[in-house]
Design brief:
With 110 residues, the chain is mainly alpha-helical. It has one domain. The chain contains 5 helices and no strands.
Length: 110
Protein backbone atom coordinates (compact mmCIF):
# COMPACT_ATOMS: atom_id res chain seq x y z
CA UNK A 1 0.00 0.00 0.00
CA UNK A 2 2.67 2.47 1.03
CA UNK A 3 4.67 1.81 -2.14
CA UNK A 4 1.61 2.57 -4.28
CA UNK A 5 0.97 5.80 -2.34
CA UNK A 6 4.61 6.91 -2.50
CA UNK A 7 4.92 6.07 -6.21
CA UNK A 8 1.76 8.05 -6.93
CA UNK A 9 2.95 10.94 -4.80
CA UNK A 10 6.35 11.04 -6.50
CA UNK A 11 5.07 10.67 -10.05
CA UNK A 12 2.49 13.42 -9.76
CA UNK A 13 3.82 15.88 -7.20
CA UNK A 14 7.64 15.63 -7.30
CA UNK A 15 8.09 18.92 -9.19
CA UNK A 16 5.86 20.78 -6.74
CA UNK A 17 7.68 19.32 -3.74
CA UNK A 18 11.17 19.83 -5.18
CA UNK A 19 10.55 23.45 -6.13
CA UNK A 20 9.18 24.39 -2.70
CA UNK A 21 7.68 27.46 -4.37
CA UNK A 22 4.74 28.77 -2.34
CA UNK A 23 2.58 29.01 -5.48
CA UNK A 24 3.29 25.37 -6.41
CA UNK A 25 2.66 24.15 -2.87
CA UNK A 26 -0.57 26.15 -2.74
CA UNK A 27 -1.81 24.54 -5.98
CA UNK A 28 -0.93 21.11 -4.61
CA UNK A 29 -2.68 21.87 -1.32
CA UNK A 30 -5.79 23.08 -3.14
CA UNK A 31 -5.94 19.85 -5.15
CA UNK A 32 -5.42 17.70 -2.04
CA UNK A 33 -8.21 19.65 -0.31
CA UNK A 34 -10.50 19.13 -3.30
CA UNK A 35 -9.77 15.39 -3.26
CA UNK A 36 -10.28 15.14 0.50
CA UNK A 37 -13.63 16.88 0.26
CA UNK A 38 -14.79 14.12 -2.08
CA UNK A 39 -16.44 11.51 0.14
CA UNK A 40 -14.46 8.28 0.48
CA UNK A 41 -17.66 6.42 -0.38
CA UNK A 42 -17.20 7.57 -3.99
CA UNK A 43 -13.94 5.62 -4.29
CA UNK A 44 -14.60 2.84 -1.80
CA UNK A 45 -17.28 0.18 -1.87
CA UNK A 46 -17.50 -3.45 -0.80
CA UNK A 47 -15.95 -4.60 -4.09
CA UNK A 48 -12.98 -2.20 -4.02
CA UNK A 49 -9.66 -4.00 -3.74
CA UNK A 50 -6.85 -2.57 -1.61
CA UNK A 51 -4.87 -1.82 -4.77
CA UNK A 52 -7.82 0.04 -6.32
CA UNK A 53 -8.29 2.06 -3.15
CA UNK A 54 -4.60 2.95 -2.97
CA UNK A 55 -4.42 4.07 -6.60
CA UNK A 56 -7.64 6.07 -6.13
CA UNK A 57 -6.18 8.01 -3.20
CA UNK A 58 -2.73 8.99 -4.47
CA UNK A 59 -1.17 10.75 -7.44
CA UNK A 60 -3.60 13.32 -8.81
CA UNK A 61 -6.18 11.98 -6.32
CA UNK A 62 -3.98 12.46 -3.22
CA UNK A 63 -5.96 12.97 -0.02
CA UNK A 64 -4.98 14.38 3.39
CA UNK A 65 -5.72 10.97 4.93
CA UNK A 66 -2.92 9.43 2.87
CA UNK A 67 -0.51 12.26 3.69
CA UNK A 68 -1.27 11.65 7.39
CA UNK A 69 -0.67 7.90 7.06
CA UNK A 70 2.68 8.44 5.31
CA UNK A 71 3.84 10.99 7.88
CA UNK A 72 2.75 8.67 10.71
CA UNK A 73 4.70 5.76 9.25
CA UNK A 74 7.81 7.90 8.79
CA UNK A 75 7.49 9.10 12.38
CA UNK A 76 7.16 5.54 13.69
CA UNK A 77 10.18 4.47 11.68
CA UNK A 78 12.21 7.43 12.96
CA UNK A 79 11.30 6.56 16.55
CA UNK A 80 12.46 2.99 16.02
CA UNK A 81 15.85 4.32 14.90
CA UNK A 82 16.64 5.99 18.23
CA UNK A 83 20.14 4.96 19.16
CA UNK A 84 20.85 3.89 15.56
CA UNK A 85 20.87 7.36 14.03
CA UNK A 86 21.74 10.83 15.22
CA UNK A 87 19.38 11.35 18.18
CA UNK A 88 19.20 15.09 17.50
CA UNK A 89 17.65 14.41 14.11
CA UNK A 90 15.04 12.07 15.59
CA UNK A 91 14.26 14.41 18.49
CA UNK A 92 13.68 17.33 16.11
CA UNK A 93 11.64 15.57 13.43
CA UNK A 94 9.44 13.18 15.43
CA UNK A 95 7.53 15.97 17.25
CA UNK A 96 7.14 17.84 13.94
CA UNK A 97 5.81 14.72 12.23
CA UNK A 98 3.41 14.11 15.11
CA UNK A 99 2.02 17.64 14.75
CA UNK A 100 1.74 17.14 10.99
CA UNK A 101 -0.17 13.88 11.48
CA UNK A 102 -2.60 15.58 13.85
CA UNK A 103 -3.06 18.44 11.40
CA UNK A 104 -3.86 15.97 8.59
CA UNK A 105 -6.39 14.20 10.79
CA UNK A 106 -8.04 17.52 11.61
CA UNK A 107 -8.50 18.16 7.87
CA UNK A 108 -10.36 14.92 7.20
CA UNK A 109 -13.96 13.94 7.80
CA UNK A 110 -13.01 11.58 10.62
Amino acid sequence: MVKIWLDGLASTWHRFLESQKPTDLRLMSEKVWENTLTPVSRILNRHTTPREFCTSSTGPFLRWEVVGIIVTLVSLLAQSLKGKSPSRLVSIHVPNMTRTTLACLAKTEY
